[in-house]
């Protein structure tokens, strides 16, 4: 028997689609429509100025998405892009876009500004080589060639120091050139060569500098008998060098390569110091450990490769320079650098017997092994031998009867006359006192002269001692 089952579908639980019902009540929609219509009527009644203001407000209003983007952008600090000059290729367009360079005369830049400038490697020239008539070569250095040139606008003669661009790829050479430019831009002294401007071209970097018509001190000595100077001339030149170095040390600048070749003389034998490529600019109490300079002029602390301060190393080089001027050769001489450095380390040098006691004492004061025992440049300028030049002028201005002693007929000793002035005698008093053989000034003069003769006789073991250990 088969059983049949009938399935009855219950439609009461069937899910039917529900009609869309607005979440907003009908009355609310009607109210919104009325407000829109009323606002449109009010807008149409506004004046033209009101319309412009409304348009501005609507223009400044942003959609919701744009407001979010705007907040993200303005929440960050503005980004400024550095202008690149790669596409300009150092042409006239580049020079036109660069700011004008301050004139080099009357510089007031501080040492701190110089230190910040040296820390950057960029060399920017603002001059134009077309403003000059370039002449013949007048000198050559390790990295540069120097030519004479004429500035067209005023016919000023200058020296044009030119570096080849492809030779400045080496970082050390580039730093030396940059350092020289930065140092010269803040120095302004009559015994230091002046930098006029820097000229940048695709193949060369030119330094337009003050023209010095004479020659180097090295060339000048080669023309002199025995390659040395008489003490009055050596005193004049050395004093000018000291005045220039005193000026640089006062501005925390140390030259670090003082030598004959880096001192020029003009037509009147006035000093001009050049080549500040090795110069440093920082407080003197800061020490460095850098092996640089010319071997014959190097201080013991440089040869020993220990930390040293700049000024005492310059002082040592000044002592070597003075020795060469009055003696005609170097105080430290050897067949090779190893032997040379050994002599410098032990301060082994001798002073010829022909050298006066005044300059002998000054050399011994300078060439001391211990840097802290060397005098400063200011102290050197007060040395008796350097000031005796003023006394020599006094003697030249004395009447003929007073230029020589009335009793012996010998010329007065300028160094002793200066000693009398240190005792308080004025020029007029000396002119009167030295006429009388029994005056206090005359008796004191004779006493000082005897003391000087006795001191010269003993003269450091007959001038054969090895100086520099004191």
From TrEMBL:
Domain of life according to the entry: Eukaryota
GO BP terms in the entry: intracellular signal transduction
Pfam families linked to this entry: Pkinase
Start and end residues of each stretch annotated as Disordered: 83-111
Xref: PROSITE patterns: PROTEIN_KINASE_ATP, PROTEIN_KINASE_DOM, PROTEIN_KINASE_ST
Gene Ontology cellular component terms for the protein in this record: cytoplasm
UniProt binding sites for ATP: 161
InterPro entries: Kinase-like_dom_sf, Prot_kinase_dom, Protein_kinase_ATP_BS, Ser/Thr_kinase_AS
Coiled-coil ranges (or none): none
An MF annotation (GO) of this entry: protein serine/threonine kinase activity
Keywords linked to the UniProt accession: ATP-binding, Kinase, Nucleotide-binding, Serine/threonine-protein kinase, Transferase
Domain spans labelled Protein kinase: 132-386
Gene3D superfamilies documented for this protein: Transferase(Phosphotransferase) domain 1
Subunit and interaction comment: Monomer.
Name of the featured protein: Protein kinase domain-containing protein
Organism: Stentor coeruleus
């Amino acid at each position: 028997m088969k059983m049949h089952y009938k399935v009855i579908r219950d439609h009461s639980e069937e899910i039917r689609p529900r009609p869309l019902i607005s979440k907003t009540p009908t009355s609310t929609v009607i109210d919104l429509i009325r407000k829109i219509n009323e606002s449109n009527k009010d807008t149409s009644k506004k004046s033209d100025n009101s319309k412009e203001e409304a348009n501005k407000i609507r223009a400044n209003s942003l959609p919701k998405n744009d407001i979010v983007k705007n907040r993200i952008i303005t929440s960050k600090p503005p980004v400024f892009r550095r202008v690149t000059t790669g596409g300009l290729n150092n042409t006239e367009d580049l020079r036109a876009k660069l700011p004008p360079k301050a004139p080099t005369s009357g510089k007031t830049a501080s040492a701190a500004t110089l230190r910040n400038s040296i820390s950057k490697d960029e060399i920017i020239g603002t001059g134009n080589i077309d403003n000059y008539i370039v002449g013949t070569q007048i000198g050559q250095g390790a990295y540069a060639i120097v030519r004479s040139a004429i500035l067209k606008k005023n016919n000023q003669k200058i020296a044009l120091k030119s570096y080849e661009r492809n030779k400045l790829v080496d970082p050390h050479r580039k730093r030396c050139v940059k350092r020289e430019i930065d140092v010269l831009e803040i120095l302004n002294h009559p015994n230091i060569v002046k930098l006029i401007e820097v000229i940048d071209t695709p193949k060369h970097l030119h330094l337009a500098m003050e023209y010095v018509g004479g020659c180097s001190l090295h060339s000048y000595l080669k023309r002199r008998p025995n390659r040395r100077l008489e003490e009055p001339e050596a005193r004049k030149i050395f004093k000018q060098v000291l005045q220039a170095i005193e000026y640089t040390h006062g501005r925390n600048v140390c030259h670090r390569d003082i030598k004959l070749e880096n001192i020029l003389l003009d037509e009147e034998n006035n000093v001009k110091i050049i080549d500040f490529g090795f110069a440093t600019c920082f407080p003197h109490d800061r020490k460095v450990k850098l092996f640089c300079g010319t071997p014959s002029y190097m201080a013991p602390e440089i040869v020993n490769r220990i930390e040293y301060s700049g000024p005492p190393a310059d002082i040592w080089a000044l002592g070597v320079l003075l020795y060469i001027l009055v003696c005609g050769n170097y105080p430290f001489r050897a067949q090779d650098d190893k032997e040379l450095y050994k002599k410098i380390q032990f301060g082994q040098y001798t002073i010829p017997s022909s050298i006066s006691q005044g300059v002998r004492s000054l050399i011994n004061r300078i060439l001391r092994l211990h840097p802290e025992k060397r005098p400063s440049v200011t102290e050197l300028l007060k040395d008796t031998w350097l000031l005796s030049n003023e006394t020599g002028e006094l003697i030249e201005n004395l009447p003929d009867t007073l230029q020589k002693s009335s009793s012996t007929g010998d010329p007065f000793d300028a160094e002793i006359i200066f000693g009398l002035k240190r005792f308080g005698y004025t020029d007029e008093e000396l002119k009167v006192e030295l006429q009388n053989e029994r005056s206090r000034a005359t008796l004191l003069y004779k006493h000082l002269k005897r003391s000087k003769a006795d001191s010269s006789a003993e003269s450091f073991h007959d001038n054969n001692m090895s100086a520099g250990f004191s």
